[in-house]
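Late entry, written up from scratch paper. The run itself happened at the end of the previous shift, but nothing got recorded in the book at the time, so transcribing now.
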Amino acid sequence: MHQGKVTFLGKFLRKTGWDEWPQLINIVAGQMAFVGPRPLTEEDVRRLNWDGPEQAFRWTVRPGITGLAQLQRKCDANLSLQNDRIYVENKDWKLDGKLLFRSLVVPLIGK
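Output as recorded:
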């Protein structure tokens, strides 16, 4: 951003997903995975009201850079939580591979 406006470079980085590259440090440190529910701040958890027992499943896996919710064209909080549940309940290396492949293709063809 420059003076409160998104720059051309910023738009490009966001659209292509290149702005996610710094999170590789978190993966190497073992704090994140390539695939999993997106990490949330405590403020996000409170805002979304996702601190109850019905959302506890979400915290049973490491957060990831990409996941089912990130590959949807349209996403809201309910759809995101539903996608996170589907991922957690079906997590295996084949699903991770499929989601990772789709995520690598997004910069080329879009969502």
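The two ends are 24 Å apart (CA to CA).
(Scratch paper discarded after transcription.)
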